[in-house]
Design brief:
This protein is an alpha+beta fold and 470 residues long. 25% of the residues lie in helices and 38% in strands. It folds into 5 domains: 89 residues, no CATH class; 79 residues, no CATH class; 63 residues, no CATH class; 69 residues, Single Sheet (Resuscitation-promoting factor rpfb fold), CATH 2.20.230; 105 residues, Glucose Permease (Domain IIA) (Distorted Sandwich), CATH 2.70.70.
Amino acid sequence: MSKKDFDLKGWTDSAKRVFWPVCAVTANQILKFTKRLFPSKDSIEREGLRLLIVGRHRAHTAQAAAPRHLKLGISIAAALAVTLCVLTVTLTGSQVMSVTVNGQMIGYVNNEAEYTNLMQSAKAKISKANGNTELVIKENKIALAPTFVPGDEKKVAEKAVSEDELVNTLISQNAVETNVYTLNVEGKEVGKFGSLAEATDTLNSVKEEVSGDQGNQSDNNGAFQEDIAIQSQTEALGQTDNLSDPQTVKDTLLAGGAQSEPLVHYETTSTETTTEPINFNTTEQKDPDMAWGDRETVQAGVPGERTVTRDVTRVNGEITAQKEISSEVTTKPVDEIVKVGTKLSQLGDTGDGKLGKPLVSWTFSRGVSAAHTGDDLCAPEGSPIYAAEAGTVIFAGQFGGYGNIVKIDHGNGLQTWYGHCESFTCAAGDTVTRGQQIATVGDTGHATCFHLHFEVRVNGAVVEPMDYLE
């Protein structure tokens, strides 16, 4: 569109003087309303409307025209004036957003930001009234649409949406639900929580308790052996009374409720380095000049120390497997050396500390070894067996591979045993003297010939009998 499109040939100067000012005023008013209604298009509209004014300066130089043109100009000016009045009434108003819930328009907000803040505030208020649970707004029940409200701005203010009104409408129109989270073990629900954080924290607290303090460790990782899942679901508002207590759920997971076995087993693997003691050995040195049973420490033992690295597997904090990777001795142990007296000076009439002979004569067959606990002394069947020293008979009878055996306690930890006997001449509880007959030679029990199995024990330990015989 060009300026030539607005040439008014044949118009009188007086007609042009009326027409162009009216057009200018009307165009300016329309421009104002256009800018208010269509701000994104104002560059296009503004340019088009301004073109209406370009011919106004020509009113002073217009040529004479027929009087009917004057009437036409006045008619056009009057029509524009009426149009201006109509636009003034119809286009004065506010551009806002209408809020509709479940088809019910409840009011206006100025913009989307105001709506967002209002909705967040309403959700917080509803959540607090329902145990601070998470809420889900049914978006399909809510509509937010641009709306032009004609007339005074007071109309918008009167229909502005308030927080309480939005809260009440959301609840009454069933446009809000509660979001809950269930904790499931092997597909079975064990707890229900009002938030994801609460469900996750409960599960993490179980991990922390069963993991415990694992000392100096690295590469620690763990996982539940069971299939555990946290799932979300929606429920009707006001159902928060069936939510679980986190501590109760934790106790159930760890103790299994009425069961003794926990519902969950958390397995961890770690590489751990520890410092451990190394026990010292004790070496005994026999001293024939020291009284039997006496002990004297010649050198005190000192434990050593080593650093050990292991792969350790735990289930619910208890070690179920470990594998040693490396070990380094940092301090060697020092052995203990003890001198042990072997002189039996209290025995016998001679005072030489020796035991009496259990047989008058014998042929030596077999001595003490790792597989044999005494000396085998061969003698004819029925030969008398004598007590090697005075004491109390503590056993006389059948005893495993020994066959018939007599056991005599001489006190101070010293005992003598007489195995493979054919018959007894004493009984348990008898007090015997040195050299008194107690049995006869036989081949009972595990024996391949007639012989006496003669055994000497000191504090329960087997010793070489020949070291104690006179």
